[in-house]
Amino acid sequence: MSEREKQRLLWGYMGAGVAAPRGARRGSAGYVPGNARLGIPPQWQTDGGMGVATQPHARARREFTAMPSGLALAATWDEDLAGRVGAAIGREVAASGHNVLLGGAVNLVRDPRSGRAFEMAGEDPLLAGRIVGAQVIGVQSNPVICTVKHFALNNQETGRHDANVLVDEAQARMSDLLAFQIAIETGAPRAVMSAYNRVNGVPSSENRDLLDRILRREWGWGGYVMSDWGGVHSSVEAARAGLDQQSAASLDDRTYFGRPLKKAVARGELPRDQLDRMAGRVLRMLLGVGMGAAASGLKDTEVLAHERLAQEVAENGAVLLKNVDALLPLQADCGSIALIGRHADLGVLSGGGSSQVYARGRAYKHQARKHDWPVVVHPSSPLAAIRAKLPGGQVHHEDGRNVQAAVRAAERSDVAIVIVSQWSAEGRDNPFDLACGQDGLIEAVAAVNANTIVVLETGGAVAMPWSEKVKAILQLWYPGSRGGSALAELLFGDVNPS
């Protein structure tokens, strides 16, 4: 390979938006051109850990299976299930013409307010490492490179580009680094994505202790390290530290691994054998998955199987937090039900950001205020699923915006189910309080109906000042493509929550 050909493996473009190059897949996260002369395929990169995502600035969304959130998967404590989820996601990645999945989110939920906690696998390093490692194995059973990310200690979203994590190495090795080590040893990911934040004063993308001493020399990992989108600050420093690829270079200040790296090699500031190592690591992983990336599509049977799998995860990951007087499961003769929730007639909430998947069918969405990410409700209606469980029964829906209307519905019903939600998204952390007066709504309903059940569709922890006033609380997380169906199965006891 010529020096120019080697270097061309080391930086890429944003895959969606007006600046996306012609060869990129529609709505994808990133693209690195291939080399026709040498038979090297392009790198078609897509988010994320819950399915094939569509970036928000894409001209048209792509519809795939939306798996439940990472927290829901971790709450199953089931490595086999995690592996099957990974295999299904990897199959959809390959069928959509991609060969790199930016999945494997293993950052610990050190701060429960984290806006991206829903992508992760919880706060315990053993559980997170094993679940994510199993998922990576499943993904890479397809001709797909899977990452683990974001290396390391990326535990907050607000100020994530400026955060400086000051941590003793021994403490890091017992927590965040241990989760990564377990995931890497378990899953053998072909790529690792560096984080935005600094660790002990050094940016993660040029942190030699992380990328070289620990990841490569101590753990013996042999894949390539890519940057997060907009997370590179240098050329020579980053390359010497162990970064191999600058992703979506247009989002950084400069294409550091383009002309600046070329000049550094020419001036002897970066040894040529370092360039060989960087390109060689990318090339070995890329050729290891073959040419692939032909958008073959999915069979109808596969689509249905993947959606059933999403429902299985939602059912097994749901957590029953409270159940006084064995109110749950509901019986077919439970009487009338007031179902209260602002999107309960439409579907179930999902988390926002680069990992956003659009489930098959019509996705209902609106633009979030002050943020670029859309708010997406997957079209699996709890109302329709609950009504199907009660043939001839009475189920009345109120969206909860009018509290008095919700109270009147609860007063004349035998059971009140209140679905509350908190939207989480990349780039912002959350308050603990439920937005839009939902705490007051629950208290008002519980005051008139002794059989009040609260269902939580949240990306993480929320305050529950009303917990002593309701009989049952079910944590549903973000439940994915068939979340409404899963909820009905849980409420009526066809499956047992964790």
Taking strands numbered 1, 2, ... along the chain, how are they ordered across the largest sheet?
1-2-3-4-5-7-10
The amount of helix comes to: 25-40%
**% residues in beta strands:** 5-15%
Q: How confident is the prediction overall: mean pLDDT?
A: 94
| Shape, per Cα inertia axes | elongated
- Would you count the extended β strands for me? 19
Count the DSSP helices: 15
Backbone structural class: alpha/beta
Q: Could you tell me the radius of gyration in angstroms?
A: 23 Å
Largest sheet: 7 strands, mixed
- Please mark out the parts with pLDDT under 50 across 5 or more consecutive residues, or reply none: none
N-to-C CA distance: 54 Å
Summarize the structure.
The protein has 498 residues and is an alpha/beta fold. 32% of the residues lie in helices and 15% in strands.
If you had to describe this structure to a student in words, what would you say it looks like?
Helix content is 32%, strand content 15%. By secondary structure, the chain is α/β, with parallel strands linked by helices. A seven-stranded mixed β-sheet has the order 1-2-3-4-5-7-10. Helix 3 (79-95) runs antiparallel to helix 11, helix 4 runs parallel beside helix 6 and helix 13 (403-411) runs parallel beside helix 14.
